[in-house]
Amino acid sequence: MAATQKDSKLEAPQQFTPYTPKEGEEYMNEAQRDHFRRILMNWKRELMEEVDRTMHHMKDEAANFPDPTDRASQESEFSLELRTRDRERKLIRKIDQGISRVDRDEYGFCDTCGTEIGIRRLEARPTATLCVDCKSLDEIRERQLGR
Description:
elongated, disordered N terminus, mainly alpha, 2 domains
């Protein structure tokens, strides 16, 4: 599997029908929470399947190559796979937190200012916990502090 294909698993899933709010519909009502719960659960399932594929691949491909170059190449490939899986593990934790927020009726509201994050932003980044304004301020602070 190409590296770009693996990295795409770290992005929000694209296989869903965007939510179309009805006129006068309350923000983060039951239908919207169900929509985002499905997105988060499907994304988590995809990531878990990828972890399983990686484990099977590493077990199947593990070989003790006599040639040092072949061995180094395999170790480099496994190292890259493990780094990617570690990033996915952290993302799964964020997805679980998002599901928990949906269940507690806290999903979709900014952690900093409490305003609505917005349906389109959440569809693009279902693990978002900050509105666009607070996230922008957060990024400015990070650049100023050199992190």
